[in-house]
Amino acid sequence: MSDETLNTNNKRPRPENDKDDSSPSKRPAARSVSNNIKEVGRDLFKSQAFSDLVINCNGKEFNVHSLFLRQQSQFFQACLDSGMKEAKENVVNLPDDKPEDIARMLEFLYTGRFWEHEENVRKQNDAASIRIYKAYVDPEEERTQEELMSDPLVVIIRLFQLGNKYGIPGLKKACFLKLRLYAKEMFPLIWNRATPEEMVSEISSQWCRLMDAIEFAFHHMPSPSVFEAANTLLTPLARASPFLLKPEYTSWEDLVNVDRNALLEDMTTKFAGLAEKLEKNSDFATRLFTIICWESLKRRGRENYDWVRVRNFVGSTRRMLNTVSRILDDPVLVSDLPCNRRAMSLGQDTACESPRPMVPALAKRYWDTATPLVFRCRDCDWECAPHNLGLEEENEDDGADDFDDLVGLESDDEE
Ligand SMILES: [Zn+2]
């Protein structure tokens, strides 16, 4: 929506005009009613009919309906219900924001979505949105501040910032959904069996964009949201990095004909500037490193590791540490730890008379059991899982959360 249409035509539509095709003042595609509830917001946003509030942002005026703002924004609710000056005069001044961002925020409040591209792209077809990304992706060229600020990723981060500032949870959520979508579709060439040269070029250029966006986020987003955004945007980079370091991972037939030295040299040049950026932001670098390690582990894991077993081990370790901590807090519990060989066996075994308490140990078949950490009798080597001793608390944290947090870095399985 252009500024012009926002600032003019603040008139209640006259129904008689709608049918009068010969009227010189006729509006194209004019309608007197909306077709459904989704269209109501969009139509009101466009026509500004019945608007009862003016938002003034750096000289740009938006005629809006306070109801839409009140219902979704804590800021506007407080501002308009408080009897403050704004409520009496029906004017709210937002001098610190960019008018085009306020227009996007309003678009969201009216329609549940916003357009993060530049306005002229919207008028073209969908292919234009692909072109606009290509326009940002030449890593040789330092982007101007203006180009950076109009990058859709940066726009989304700014909109998140507005959602935070004006207490609009729906907008913040919408921003994250968009970031996830971008991250998910970031490197289509990899999955489309492009040549290694094309891949390197695509990854290195998108990498620049992502780094710029994350850098911007680190300066403008509050924590912990910034970390969630950084994780979201870094994951596709991390996932792509093995292809850069070791293109033979791809096992593509045409790799036989690739000049690897030339490829490596090309990559070194392209990544020099990126390495410089990494050096400037240690938090960012650490985060990227962590996610790359995790992604590599997962790659290897698909071939070599049984993740259920690893998860079991993490959980078992956590339970054992909790149990031992509880015993240290309450030494009387040690009396529950004598060897229970006869009690646990099926009557075949003789009882163990050891007077000493069992101690934590790695199970003899630790790779092959759900409880790799056990209590063991030091005299007869009998092993007993902690949960069989009644020393564990009900619904004790099994430690798998830590593990799942890491898995959670892979956000595209959600929603
Ligand atoms: Zn024993």
Total domain modules: 2
Terminal CA distance reads 29 Å
Spans of 5+ residues with little confidence (pLDDT < 50)? 1-22, 407-415
Determine Rg (CA atoms, Å): 30 Å
Average pLDDT taken over every residue: 75
Number of helical segments?
20
| N-to-C SSE string, H for helix and E for strand | HHHEEHHHEHHHHHHHHHHHHHEEEH
Largest beta-sheet details:
3 strands, mixed
Considering DSSP H and I runs of 4 or more, what fraction of the residues is helical? 55-70%
Strand order of the largest sheet: 2-1-3
The unique ligands bound to this protein are:
zinc ion
Instruction: Give the strand tally.
Output: 6
Outline type: flat
Portion of residues in beta strands equals 5-15%
Helix/strand-derived category reads: mainly alpha
Domain BTB: 51-118
Biased composition (Basic and acidic residues): 13-24
Biased composition (Polar residues): 1-10
Pfam families: BTB (PF00651)
Structural commentary:
The chain has helices at 3-7, 15-19, 37-47, 66-72, 74-81, 85-89, 99-111, 119-122, 127-135, 145-150, 152-165, 169-184, 188-191, 196-220, 225-245, 260-280, 282-304, 307-329, 341-344, 400-407; strands at residues 53-57, 60-64, 91-93, 359-362, 373-376, 383-384. The chain is mostly helical and 415 residues long. It folds into two domains: 98-305, no CATH class; 308-402, no CATH class. The strands form two sheets. A three-stranded mixed β-sheet has the order 2-1-3. A hairpin with a 2-residue loop joins strand 1 and strand 2. The site of zinc ion (ZN) has 8 residues, from loops. Residues 339, 341, 352, 354, 377, 379-380, 382 line the site of zinc ion (ZN).
